[in-house]
């Protein structure tokens, strides 16, 4: 029986970013250096396949530091942690390795610098997300006001409108964030912005690649986890760019084949915490059902690399 024809437009860049790659290496190197188990506070990155793979190697994932024994190493996730977490680890004389993405750490440093200058912070981010909690936890309570939408900007009460700065979560929608920034600047003309864009290169690049393939496709699949902020934003960006059908799938088994009946051009991308092996799994699932033509649409080339902490590069 002849398979129907289908063109897969593969967005590039897609998948792992430098911060995710570094965080995974940190856990693997910690297990190699100190042996299993190594504890990890929160999922190292938001991807079940990755987390399960590290668990099989000897990582134990917990949500809070007090779930970790003091005599085993602990790794802090790529999303960053409040200052109270490493302080508590030091108080317990624990060995810990901070796998916070350097681009998240940059936002932490910005927040501290503005705080030292006497500015109150406004953070654009998602309530409850570990990155938001970690960034807000760099400063004393009340020093960071969280806004999630343009409407929030109209409601916030600040200490002094002339002494404000804003920062953002690194994995937000570029377009949505620009609207919130414009609202902040309209209401608080003196507000100070980041020296360099807080939304990270990987988030920006993956959203740009989705926009590039959107006019070419009938449907978009984003490979990523439901708790991955950058993956969920890719779905939203796809819909905003005109993809009537844009869905998040963790693996090939999540694909809704009925919804794709009659579709002849599909876009595929992956969030920054989704490994390429899952992209290949999805492509293979399509090739089993269709006569597939692959087209890669590359909008940027990423050459960013981050070093792992020195403690892991030194002899045990």
From TrEMBL:
It comes from the Bacteria. It catalyses: dimethylallyl diphosphate + 2 oxidized [2Fe-2S]-[ferredoxin] + H2O = (2E)-4-hydroxy-3-methylbut-2-enyl diphosphate + 2 reduced [2Fe-2S]-[ferredoxin] + 2 H(+); isopentenyl diphosphate + 2 oxidized [2Fe-2S]-[ferredoxin] + H2O = (2E)-4-hydroxy-3-methylbut-2-enyl diphosphate + 2 reduced [2Fe-2S]-[ferredoxin] + 2 H(+). (2E)-4-hydroxy-3-methylbut-2-enyl diphosphate binds at residues 46, 79, 129, 170, 228-230, 273. The active site is at 131 (proton donor). The keyword Disulfide bond does not apply. Its EC number is 1.17.7.4. Isopentenyl diphosphate binds at residues 46, 79, 129, 228-230, 273. Its cofactor is [4Fe-4S] cluster. Dimethylallyl diphosphate binds at residues 46, 79, 129, 228-230, 273. Pathway: Isoprenoid biosynthesis; isopentenyl diphosphate biosynthesis via DXP pathway; isopentenyl diphosphate from 1-deoxy-D-xylulose 5-phosphate: step 6/6; Isoprenoid biosynthesis; dimethylallyl diphosphate biosynthesis; dimethylallyl diphosphate from (2E)-4-hydroxy-3-methylbutenyl diphosphate: step 1/1. [4Fe-4S] cluster binds at residues 17, 101, 200. One of its GO terms (molecular function) is 4-hydroxy-3-methylbut-2-enyl diphosphate reductase activity. It is an enzyme of class 1 (oxidoreductase). Binds 1 [4Fe-4S] cluster per subunit. Keywords: 4Fe-4S, Iron, Iron-sulfur, Isoprene biosynthesis, Metal-binding, Oxidoreductase. Catalyzes the conversion of 1-hydroxy-2-methyl-2-(E)-butenyl 4-diphosphate (HMBPP) into a mixture of isopentenyl diphosphate (IPP) and dimethylallyl diphosphate (DMAPP). Acts in the terminal step of the DOXP/MEP pathway for isoprenoid precursor biosynthesis. Belongs to the IspH family. This is 4-hydroxy-3-methylbut-2-enyl diphosphate reductase. It comes from Halodurantibacterium flavum. The gene is ispH.
């Amino acid at each position: 029986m002849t398979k129907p024809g289908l063109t897969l437009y593969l967005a590039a860049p897609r998948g792992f970013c430098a911060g995710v790659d570094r965080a995974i290496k940190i856990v693997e190197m910690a297990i190699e250096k100190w042996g299993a188990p190594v504890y990890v506070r929160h999922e190292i990155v938001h991807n079940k396949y990755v987390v399960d793979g590290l668990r099989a190697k000897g990582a134990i994932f917990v949500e809070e530091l007090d779930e970790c024994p003091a005599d085993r190493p602990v790794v802090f996730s790529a999303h960053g942690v409040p200052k109270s977490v490493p302080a508590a680890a030091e108080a317990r004389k624990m060995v810990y390795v901070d796998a916070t993405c350097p681009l998240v750490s940059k936002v932490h440093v910005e927040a501290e610098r503005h705080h030292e200058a006497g500015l109150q912070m406004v953070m654009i981010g998602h309530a409850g997300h570990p990155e938001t909690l970690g960034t807000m936890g760099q400063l004393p309570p009340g020093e960071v006001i969280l806004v999630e939408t343009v409407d929030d900007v109209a409601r916030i009460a600040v200490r002094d409108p002339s002494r404000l700065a804003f920062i953002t979560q690194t994995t937000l929608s570029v377009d949505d964030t620009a609207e919130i920034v414009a609202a902040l600047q309209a209401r608080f003309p003196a507000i100070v912005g980041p020296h360099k864009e807080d939304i990270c290169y990987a988030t920006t690049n993956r959203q740009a690649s989705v926009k590039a393939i959107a006019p070419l496709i009938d449907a978009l699949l984003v490979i990523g986890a439901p708790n991955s902020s950058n993956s969920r934003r890719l779905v939203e960006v796809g819909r905003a760019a005109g993809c009537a059908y844009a869905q998040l799938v963790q693996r090939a088994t999540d694909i809704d084949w009925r919804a794709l009946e009659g579709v002849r051009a599909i876009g595929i991308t992956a969030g920054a915490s989704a490994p390429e092996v899952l992209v290949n799994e999805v492509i293979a699932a399509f090739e089993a059902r269709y006569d597939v033509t692959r087209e890669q649409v590359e909008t940027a080339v990423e050459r960013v690399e981050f070093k792992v902490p020195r403690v892991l590069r030194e002899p045990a």
